[in-house]
Amino acid sequence: MDKTTAIDVQHKVRQIIAGLKHKPGALMPILHAIKDELGYIPDSTVPTIAEGLQITRAEVHGVISFYHDFRATAPGKHVVHICRAEACQARGCRTLEHHAQQTLGVDYHQTTPDGDITLEAAYCLGNCATGPSVRVGDDIYGRVTPARFDALIDQLQTVPLFIRTASAGVDRGADREEGSAHG
Ligand code: FES
User: Fold this and answer.
1) How far apart are CA 94 and CA 129, in angstroms?
2) Would you say the C-alpha torsion 118, 119, 125, 128 has a positive or negative sign?
3) What is the pTM of this model?
4) Strands (E), the chain
5) Buried b vs exposed e over 138-163: b needs ≥16 C-beta within 10 Å?
6) Beta strands in 53-109 (DSSP E)
7) Predicted pLDDT of residue 171
8) Which residues pair with 134 in a beta bridge?
């Protein structure tokens, strides 16, 4: 994070704290507001939050690490949630999550080294009848087999490549050839 961005982040966080700190149980609304604004809760903001609420940094850290909803590092370009709740378990989500972790080389709450994909667990995506369910951004997919999961990931990684080469004026045939190497 460069200096200007870091200052902006602190400024935004102070504004959020000032607006919410008088609410009962203000820590959770503040953490949610920061997450909504930045996508995560940077470590650098913990002292600011602690000072604003007159609590210890350890208390703030404790809450951030307890709730899966909060993360201390920036998420990848795409966040992929796999549902682990009961109905999806009955439909094979354990096999799917094992496959996803092996394929991406990451555990839940981690991001692939290229910064492309963050893998997260979800506990019911409201799509129980057609599990195993996966959410990619705002889109929910049902009946996700390991093969379909691979196709979804390929699509996430291939589409930006296609747009980049097409906008650079590269021959479309070459784009297709390059894209198919990922599929
Ligand atoms: S249990 Fe997975 S979508 Fe409801």
Assistant:
1) 16
2) positive
3) 0.72
4) 78-83, 110-111, 117-122, 134-136, 139-141
5) eebbbebebeebeebbeebbbeeebe
6) 78-83
7) 40
8) 82, 141
Pocket of ligand 1 (CB under 6 A): 83, 85-88, 124-128, 131, 133
Whether the Cβ atoms of residue 122 and residue 81 lie closer than 8 Å to each other: yes
Q: What is the largest CA-CA distance in the chain?
A: 61
- CA–CA distance, 59 with 76 (Å, rounded to integer): 27
C-alpha dist (Å) from residue 159 to 80, 82, 170, 172: 16, 21, 15, 13
Distance 84 CA to ligand 1 centre (A): 7
What whole-number distance in Å separates Cα of residue 169 and Cα of residue 120?
36
Ligand 1 centroid from CA 121, angstroms: 11
Residue percentage of the chain with pLDDT more than 90: 70
Residues whose CB is less than 8 angstroms from the CB of residue 94 and which lie 6 or more positions away in sequence, other chains included:
none
Q: Is 75 helix (H, G, I), strand (E, B) or coil?
A: coil
Average pLDDT of the residues in 14-32: 95
Sign of CA dihedral 136, 75, 37, 164: negative
Give the tokens for residue 99. Answer: 């496959």
* Token duo for residue 169: 């004026």
Q: Find residue 119's DSSP bridge partners.
A: 80, 110
